[in-house]
Amino acid sequence: MKKIIVCGGRPLNGKISVGGSKNAALPILFACILTNGISKIVNMPDIGDVRVAIEIIRAFGAKVDRFGDTVYIDTRNLSYVRPNPEHVSSIRASTYLIGSCLSRFGECDILPFGGCNFSLRPIDMHIDACISLGAQLDGEKIVAPRLRGAEINFNKASVGATVNAILLAASAEGQTVIDGCAIEPHIDALIDFLNSCGAQIVRECRRISIVGKRLHGGNTRIIGDMIEAGSYLALGLLCGGDLKALDSPIEDMHSVFDAFLRLGASVVAEAGELSVKMIRSKPLFISASPYPGFPTDLQPIFAPLMAKKCGGEIIDEVWPERFGYLHSLSDLGIRWNLNGNRATIYFSEIHCGKTAAPDLRGGMACLMAALCSSGQSEIYSAEVILRGYENLEQKLCAIGADIKIEDI
Ligand code: EPZ
After folding, report:
1. Hey, how many other C-beta atoms are within 10 angstroms of the C-beta on 236?
2. Number of neighbours of residue 405 by Cβ within 10 angstroms
């Protein structure tokens, strides 16, 4: 267990770098299981979820070496073993074992797949995709001696189910067409990586066409993390000062920029540096929806910003119940009301206090609220925040924050 001790109320100045995207890195790591060869992946973030994913694939016999932000993965000698349930239950991306293990080994244990616990997180669409390609449920396992291409029609955009369908089809016999797929930038990042491994995958709008191939090792650079970038830009507005985010995936962030503009800020992108400045704040309404909509993972991050400025409202079409984090924000003075699936955030006197990080993004929202209020705060269960933010203490201290992460 970790806690973050925050001496808040300081402006944040300078440049902060944005690392590789968590949600692009994780499917690519699990996709290596499908390949037979050595892959080189650069800009791999060193975050909790990635460390766990690497432990999971090492257990099948993968040789993984990290040099700085470059990771080499050798998957020439893999065999199936039941994954460690503790690892599997600590990250959501462990669901990608279903597609990758069925493809490589023809079997996968259905385990208690984990991740942030802000809502019920069903896997029915993942299982349906497996069954479409010829897999069968067998007690607590799913098995498929052969996978054959098929037509898959998703009736909602699911990142995880789209990733698994791609992993299943990439080396199945014949052609698969997936309709209704998610189109987040990390889906294209996965497709690019698999194509570098010899796959034949094309995405057009919400349709992905795949011809199954034998895959060798590949090369890729993990795209920048738009959620980390959006978090730092929001933090800069919240704390004041002159903060610039480097290495942001600017082309993926239109809906985020639009939200900053509607809040009354200007967004400046110059020579790869991104900054936002408040001009005249206005109440903000956010409706989170699948890409290219405003990301659900940033709605908790915008809540303290709304509370500090003019208030606003949030609905989340992806996870309609993703508002548990508001209880933790109450400990820091943020006032809100939940009416069905619509959260109203009131203008609030944010103050220091003690609270617990409820999940990754909700925890970051708590840290942000603590950073903008004078006095000492303590954020407990802080290890969940480190699952998705790299070198957090060093990065924030370098721009003038006063935080210390301690083991408890
Ligand atoms: C991914 O989760 C991300 N996790 C989440 O980020 C993110 O919030 C989410 O996508 C949406 O962008 C990873 O990439 C590891 P989904 P995932 O399947 O894939 C429903 C973070 O903070 N659904 O796109 O699990 C589901 O209930 C984390 O970094 C089904 O009904 O999300 C939801 O309403 C949190 N049946 C919607 O689809 C299924 O079988 C979208 O979920 C699967 C999903």
Report:
1. 25
2. 17
Instruction: Let me know if 116 is a catalytic residue.
Output: yes
* Ligand 1 close to Cβ of residue 360 (< 6 A): yes
pTM of the entire predicted model = 0.97
Measured by CA distance, the residue closest to atom 9 of ligand 1 is 159
Question: For 316-369, what is each residue's pLDDT tens digit?
Answer: 999 999 999 999 999 999 999 999 999 999 999 999 999 999 999 999 999 999
Q: Do domains 2-19+225-407 and 22-221 have the same CATH topology?
A: yes
Q: Find the catalytic residue in 101, 108, 116, 239.
A: 116
In whole angstroms, give the CA distance from residue 354 to residue 349: 16
Q: Is residue 247 within 6 Å of ligand 1 at its C-beta?
A: no
Domain 2-19+225-407 fold: UDP-n-acetylglucosamine1-carboxyvinyl-transferase; Chain (3.65.10)
**Which mutation among 30, 158, 252, 317 tests ligand 1's pocket best, with the greatest number of atoms within 8 A of CB?**
158
Question: Does residue 120 carry a pLDDT above 90?
Answer: no
Q: What is the pLDDT of residue 59?
A: 98
The CATH number of domain 22-221, selected from 2.60.40.60, 3.90.1170.30, 3.65.10.10, 3.40.120.10: 3.65.10.10
User: What pLDDT digit, counting tens, does each position of 264-284 carry?
Assistant: 999 999 888 999 999 999 999
- The minimum-distance atom of ligand 1 relative to the CA of 163 is 19
